């Protein structure tokens, strides 16, 4: 018998092998050979049990934690470096400093290019880090596989971190070459990050092999339904938990390294932690479940869509839209519906793969709304850092407050997983993935409203009022608002909740809705929405300066709120099919390329 951890710590679910004979009578499902082992000995639910039984998550495989630790080290290095970018770019070198350290009462800085340039370069970096996953996904799915691509990504990012160190060394930081070295370091680090991010998320979820609902009986005698989608959701919640442990340690320690020692140390320590990644990957190389590359199926998916769209075009755009969204759009493109002599030579897949591609296209349509959400999230590493510098920090580095976001995530992720989500399931409240994402939009909007109101009072209380960012006395010392910087905490906590609902669920949605041989690609499409947000954010850079910052936060809040409403109206029908989409049979494609 097998032991399963459920969402109730007091419950142990046991699967009895003598129920194997019930499987045939209770379910008409059949499984391909590659997943028989993962489901052997399990009891599958009847239709009545699917509807009535309480659903729980399965236990997580231990090798997933090894991958999560790699992500922790990578995120320590990424966020630990990035958190000091704004000060490095915006603020000038403190008088007499050759490291950029501001000390207890000074403001750390290096290049002195101002807030708009800092926001622009940070936005470019975000864009670059989230557009490169498209290349990482393609090379992993078609040539190298996810694990090998992650290993290459680590080597590339390591080179980028070394160049960042060079840009901040005494003797370089106070010369014009510092900016060039810094930008090269950003570009190379961003490339490595993109290759990494497209593949580490699918790699960790692939460590869990079950993808079908099954029934277990708990120690208390209750029959429950173990739901793989809930297990993947749990896995991504703790994956995000590890991300934010790395982020909070990296960000807090590096802000103090920057303030009291210099930027060279703030770039060196993340590089040292990053060196754990190759050793952990090497240790687990024979322990990870790995999906080999299958050759390019993206072009096949596009051909399939084009084939399904035949005869559905019209000079009337409304009619075309309705035709492309009709219920039979994909059905008529299934191989079983096409006579052998009329079937295109490239149609080397089964009907189930068509269903998976349909599901993947619907997921990508869901992701089209995410750029508006990311606009609000991106404020925490740019404008909110600058806002903190105009408030009374009482000796704290202005960029330390951004750590309230990962700290809140570390606290509230287990709360949601162990208390809130199980309580909702027991109360028969279906807080589905799409409902969570909708909630994430509204939380992001509320965060921006908080920031806008706070910015209004900063202008009201600052000695220079609407020139708060550049306010100095006769001796050149910064003058700030008397408002305590901790008032900012509301924005960060609300953003953290929005991430739990929108960002984590987006990772889950990308993995569970993608065809197995396109998981990196669909994940990259999800990540690419952040790149689009960064590009879109460039249009708002003009608002990232005094006296327009209230408008900046207000516009972001309104956009996120309106997008949340429109998002729900666009996906409410899809939400009703969530369970059906999560339990599709796996499709297969006959590869025509060498793996």
Automatic annotation (TrEMBL):
Keywords: Membrane, Transmembrane, Transmembrane helix, Transport. The keyword NADP does not apply. One of its GO terms (cellular component) is plasma membrane. SUPFAM superfamilies: MFS general substrate transporter. GO terms for molecular function: dipeptide transmembrane transporter activity. It is a multi-pass membrane protein. It comes from the Eukaryota. The chain crosses the membrane at residues 150-173, 179-200, 238-257, 263-283, 360-377, 406-424, 436-458, 485-509, 521-543, 549-571. It is found in: Membrane. PANTHER family: OLIGOPEPTIDE TRANSPORTER-RELATED. This is Peptide transporter PTR2A. It comes from Leucocoprinus leucothites. The lineage of its organism: Eukaryota, Fungi, Dikarya, Basidiomycota, Agaricomycotina.
């Amino acid at each position: 018998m097998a032991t399963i951890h459920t969402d109730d710590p007091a419950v142990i679910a046991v699967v009895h092998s003598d129920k194997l004979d019930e499987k045939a009578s209770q379910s008409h499902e059949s499984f391909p050979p590659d997943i028989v082992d993962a489901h052997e000995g399990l009891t599958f639910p009847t239709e009545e049990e699917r509807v009535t039984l309480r659903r729980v998550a399965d236990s997580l495989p231990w090798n997933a934690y090894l991958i999560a630790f790699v992500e922790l080290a990578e995120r320590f290095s990424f966020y630990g470096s990035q958190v000091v970018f704004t000060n490095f770019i915006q603020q000038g070198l403190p008088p007499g400093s050759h490291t950029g350290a501001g000390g207890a009462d000074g403001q750390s800085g290096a290049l002195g290019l101002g807030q708009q340039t800092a926001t622009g370069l940070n936005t470019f970096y975000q864009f670059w880090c989230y557009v490169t996953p498209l290349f990482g996904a393609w090379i992993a799915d078609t040539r190298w596989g996810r694990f090998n691509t992650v290993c290459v990504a680590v080597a590339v990012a390591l080179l980028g971190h070394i160049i960042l160190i060079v840009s901040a060394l005494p003797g370089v930081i106070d010369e014009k070459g510092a900016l060039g070295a810094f930008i090269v370091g950003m570009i190379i680090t961003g490339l490595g990050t993109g290759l990494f991010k497209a593949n580490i998320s699918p790699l960790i979820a692939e460590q869990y092999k079950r993808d079908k609902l099954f029934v277990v009986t708990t120690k208390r005698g209750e029959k429950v339904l173990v739901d793989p989608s809930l297990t993947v959701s749990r896995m991504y919640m703790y994956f995000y938990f590890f991300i934010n442990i790395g982020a909070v340690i990296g960000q807090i320690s590096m802000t103090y390294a920057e303030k009291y020692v210099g930027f060279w140390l703030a770039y060196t320590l993340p590089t040292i932690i990053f060196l754990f990644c190759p050793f952990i990957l090497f240790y687990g190389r024979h322990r990870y479940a790995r999906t080999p590359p299958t050759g390019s199926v993206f072009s096949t998916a596009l051909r399939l869509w084009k084939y399904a769209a035949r005869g559905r075009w019209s000079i009337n755009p409304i009619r075309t839209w309705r035709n492309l969204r009709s219920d039979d759009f994909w059905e008529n493109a299934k191989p079983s519906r096409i006579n052998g002599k009329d079937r295109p030579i490239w149609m080397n897949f089964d009907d189930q793969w068509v269903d998976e591609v349909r599901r993947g296209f619907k997921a990508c349509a869901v992701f089209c709304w995410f750029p508006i959400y990311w606009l609000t999230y991106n404020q925490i590493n740019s404008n909110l850092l600058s806002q903190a510098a105009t408030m009374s920090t009482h000796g704290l580095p202005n960029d330390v407050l951004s750590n309230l976001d990962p700290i809140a995530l570390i606290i509230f992720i287990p709360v949601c997983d162990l208390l809130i989500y199980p309580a909702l399931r027991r109360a028969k409240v279906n807080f589905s993935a799409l409902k969570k994402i909708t909630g994430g939009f509204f939380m992001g909007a509320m965060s921006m409203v908080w920031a806008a109101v706070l910015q209004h009072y900063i202008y009201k209380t600052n000695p220079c009022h609407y020139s708060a960012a550049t306010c100095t006395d006769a001796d050149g010392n910064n003058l700030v608002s008397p408002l305590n910087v901790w008032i900012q905490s509301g924005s960060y906590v609300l953003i953290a909740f929005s991430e739990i609902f929108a960002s984590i669920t987006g990772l889950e949605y990308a993995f569970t809705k993608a065809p197995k041989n396109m998981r990196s690609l669909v994940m990259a499409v999800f990540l690419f929405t952040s790149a689009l947000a960064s590009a879109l954010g460039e249009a708002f850079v003009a608002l990232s300066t005094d006296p327009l910052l209230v408008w900046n936060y207000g516009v972001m809040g309104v956009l996120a709120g309106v997008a949340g409403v429109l998002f729900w109206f666009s996906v409410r029908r899809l939400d009703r099919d969530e369970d059906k989409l999560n339990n599709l049979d796996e499709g297969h494609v006959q590869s025509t390329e060498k793996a």
